[in-house]
Amino acid sequence: MPLIEVKDLKKTYRIGDVDVPALRGVSFSVEPGEFVAIMGPSGSGKSTLMNIIGCLDRPTSGKYMLDGHDASKLSDAQRAGVRNRKIGFVFQSFNLLPKMTALKNTMLPMMYSGERGNKKLALQALESVGLGKRTHHTPMQLSGGEQQRVAIARALVNDPPVMFGDEPTGNLDTTTGEEIMAIFQSLNNAGKTVIIVTHEPDIAQHCKRILRFRDGLLESDEAVKDQLVATPKRAT
Fold it and tell me: Which band of pLDDT confidence, cut at 50, 70 and 90, is reported for residue 114?
C-alpha cells in the first residue's frame, strides 16, 4: 500500500472575484522508503501541494490518502494530530524557538502531543544528526547548519513515517547543504520516507525520484539516474 496517494487533487484560491487554480488535477503515489524531490518554477503549485500533503491545508477536491487514511477531509484538530504523529517537517528557516536549547527544541513535538518529553529519545535524535555535544546550546549559539540539524532531530523525535523538507538547504552554503543532504540520505537508507521541495537541480539529484510541476500540473515523474551521494556530515 502506498504511504502517500494523491488522486485528481485540485486546489483553487478565491482572490476577490477571481478563482485562481493552484493545482489542476494531480495524481501520484509514494511508496514507503522512497526519496522524492518536488520541483517546479514559481507558481507551479509545488508549495500548495506540500501544504496539502503535509496536512497544513485541504484540497478543493480530490483525495489524499496518508498511511492508509483519507486525510483530505480532516478537521483542523485532526490534521494537527496527524502532523504531530505521522509527519516530520524541516523548513528553510529552521523555525527553532530562540530561547530554548537544542534539546528542548527537539522535545517540542512530544510536548505538543500531550506527553511528557522523553529526554532520552530527544538525545538520541540529536546524536543521530551529529549534535550530541551541542544539546544545551541555544539557536544563537549554533551555526545555520547546526540549527537545521536540530530541526531534523525535532522532525525525527516522534519517529513519523514520512519527513517533509521545504527548501531545507535554501538558507545554507553549498558545503553545509551537502551535509544536510547526507543526513537525509542516511535516513532514507535506513528506511525513512523523505520528500523535499527544492528549486536546486543538484539538490534534487541527491534524491531517487523527481516530480516536476508546471502550471498546477504534474509535468513529469522520473527516477534519478546517477544519484549524487552527499558528503557525510562532519563530526561535532
Answer: low
